[in-house]
Amino acid sequence: MNHSKSLLVIALVWPEPASTAAGVRMMQLLDVFKRDGYSITIASAASTSEHSADLESCGYKTKAIQMNDSSFDAFVAELNPDAVLFDRFLTEEQFGWRVAEQCPNALRILDTEDLHSLRHVRETCFKKGVEFTTDAWLQDDKTKREIASIYRCDLSLIISSYELELLTEVIKIDKSLLFLLPFMLPEIPEDKEWKTFDQRTDFLFIGGGKHAPNIDAVKCLKHTIWPLLRERLPEAKLHIYGAYLPQQVVEMDNQKERFFVKGRAADVNQVMAAAKVCLAPLRFGAGIKGKLVAAMANGTPSVTTTIGAEGMYGILEWNGYIENDHTAFVEAAVRLYTVPTAWNKAQEQGKTLINTLYSETSQAHLLLQKVTELQTGLQHHRTQNFIGGLLQHQTMSATKFMGKWIEEKNKG
Questions:
Q1: How far is the CA of 301 from the CAs of 184, 260, 269, in angstroms?
Q2: DSSP code of 61?
Q3: How far apart are CA 78 and CA 72, in angstroms?
Q4: How far apart are CA 239 and CA 259, in angstroms?
Q5: Residue 2 has pLDDT above 50, yes or no
Q6: Amino acid 20: pLDDT
Q7: Could you tell me if 226 and 237 are in contact, meaning their C-beta atoms sit under 8 angstroms apart?
Q8: Which pLDDT score, from 0 to 100, does residue 19 have?
Q9: DSSP conformation class of 43
Q10: What is the value of pTM for the model shown?
Q11: Residue 243, Cβ neighbours under 10 Å: how many?
């Protein structure tokens, strides 16, 4: 294997694939570059936790770095990577100018995870009880920061087709700067043997407690959807899984109501493959929902909302139902839970979705092809990205002097 190529990943947090979809996404990306022969160093200014992935056992080097500290300059100059992957726009804001200054020839890739500005503005609109509009999104400061970050990079990985459309149609970002890359999963063989309709039981919701849309969805299940569902299905239970669930969710656990708060799932696939139906009444958020991809990958039909399924199924059929109205949501859940033909059809649709839109083999091939193409003609690519050059010039000055000022202040 040729190890002459090197990749530096600047991680916002150390990946926790057992806790978050973002952690799963990062491990998938690392795996693609590793298989292509890159030697990989992962650096982060965050602290590790007991649930952080054991990166070194996967063959990756790790490095603790500090913000607003020129020690990073020496580190990155010595490493001199061929490519740098920024994990979310916040790391590009903090370290992008240093990378551009010390390693001007390194390809700069931004993994947006999902558009954080979109998630933020949707949450704000939801809390104010007003409808989300693209105008509201365009006016927000976080949007301006995230878009500037996309322009400063040579390539940004966009997780959902809806977000790609937003960037190309509304902001008119050139397609050469963007690459649609959903979650990457192994294809499901035709003869895959999952637990059958009769072998499965109960409903499931899974989602990390640090993510506001998940907490809202659990509240919606507890107070609105589950009271109606449990009346219709007196034997069924609802299991709530998620890492870092706040106390208000933990206290919702109620055996009498058959509403069970389980906390962190040791193995997401195991609990998903045993459930009959996944419920995800998401009312705001962005990106692609890891829980719904996991449902498809484990043959578990789901009921979700327009926001939940957004940018996830293209022109194909959903693996279950998409309903925004609570009554219709409950009806759909009852149907999947009680009608084997509807359930089996939904399961098959999930398999088709994974194999068509989320195939690891084809996605990885296209990504590496794009990376090679950009590395070959990097100077021309940057010349064409005039706004990126302009922002690099302006931001470099502003962020650079702010960073140096903070560094001096910290010395004092």
A1: 19, 20, 14
A2: E
A3: 10
A4: 6
A5: no
A6: 85
A7: no
A8: 82
A9: E
A10: 0.91
A11: 20
The predicted model gives 331-352 an average pLDDT of 98
| Residue 53: both structure tokens together | 């992935």
Question: Could you give the CA distance from residue 337 to residue 232 in angstroms, rounded to a whole number?
Answer: 11
Closest CA to 246 of 211, 208, 205, 209: 209
Residue 272 tokens read as 């998903």
Residue with tokens 């030697």, as numbered in its chain: 39
Task: Find the helix packing angle between 290-297 and 21-35, rounded to 10°.
Answer: 70
Burial class (CB in 10 A: 0-12, 13-18, 19+), 291: buried
The Cα–Cα gap between 96 and 90 comes to 9
pLDDT at 3: 47
Residue 400 in this model has a pLDDT that exceeds 80: no
Q: Minimal CA–CA distance to 280: which of 339, 323, 314?
A: 323
Quick one: average pLDDT of 134-142? 96
Q: What is the mean pLDDT of residues 334-350?
A: 98
- Span 114-124, mean pLDDT? 95
Check the CA dihedral 272-273-276-277 and report its sign. Answer: positive
Mean pLDDT, rounded, for 85-112 = 95
Average pLDDT of the residues in 22-47:
95
Q: How far is the C-alpha of 249 from the C-alpha of 330, rounded, in Å? A: 21
How many CB atoms within 10 Å of residue 40?
24
d(CA 245, CA 264): 8
CA distance 360 to 23: 16
pLDDT for 180-213, tens place per residue?
999 999 999 988 999 999 999 999 999 999 999 9
Distance, in Å, from the CA atom of 87 to the CA atom of 113, rounded to the nearest integer, reads 8
Exposed/middle/buried for 5, CB within 10 Å: 0-12, 13-18, 19+? middle
| % of the chain with per-residue pLDDT over 70 | 96
Strand partners, 42: 9, 62
pLDDT at 277: 98
163-172 LR contacts (CB < 8 Å, sep 24+): 163/112, 163/114, 163/115, 163/118, 163/286, 163/287, 163/311, 164/311, 166/115, 166/118, 166/134, 166/137, 167/115, 170/134, 170/138, 171/138, 171/147
DSSP class per residue in 118-142: HHHHHHHHHHHT----HHHHHH-HH
Q: Would the pLDDT of 374 be above 50?
A: yes
Q: Rounded distance, CA 354 to CA 349, Å?
A: 9
